Amino acid sequence: MLISGKPHKSCVRAGTPQQERELLRDLARKAEQELIGVQMASMDELTLLPNRHGFLALAQLGLDACQQLDRPATLLFFNLDEFKRINYLFGRTEGDKALKTFADVLRIGFRENDVVGRLEGATFVALLTGSGSVDIEAIKARLEEMLDERMATAHSGYEIRFSIGQIEHDPVVHGSVEEMLVEAEKALGR
Questions:
Q1: Which of 8, 18, 74, 170 could form an SS bridge with 1, CB 3.0 to 4.6 Å?
Q2: How many domains does the chain have?
Q3: How far are the Cα atoms of 10, 87, 102, 121, 184 from residue 84, in angstroms, in the given order?
């Protein structure tokens, strides 16, 4: 490879085994930094869940796998109720804690093969792979129980409550996860 008429540093053959190892280490460090950059661009800093971009990429892979295996998939979407009130009455720091707590509950409340993410603000999603229509009341009760346990030990002075909805994947209607999200956002009134 030529850059400015000169061979690029990575294309120059190192003379000794030591120089070759050093060059390979340098390339590995650069590759690792690139991967970290890509991962950070796909992750929500506050909750450490995939952000909208990361969720779409991961969930599409999950949805593609479900379609190849002829398995169902269901998108759950969550919105924290009265989140603005928590921010207003208790401050942004407490609002951030509420978001982190909810994210943690979602992370442990779903299976490893499900994809959970934070879209924006107080809106979260989960793609349940291999699951058709689910009992959202049972899911809500289980998640609320987990939240109540966490909030009892935090002594924060407020409860975290949420709304939940679901959209079952229909290959005729939803060609992608993005199309499922559009339907979910309409259901949320956005």
A1: 8
A2: 2
A3: 52, 5, 15, 10, 21
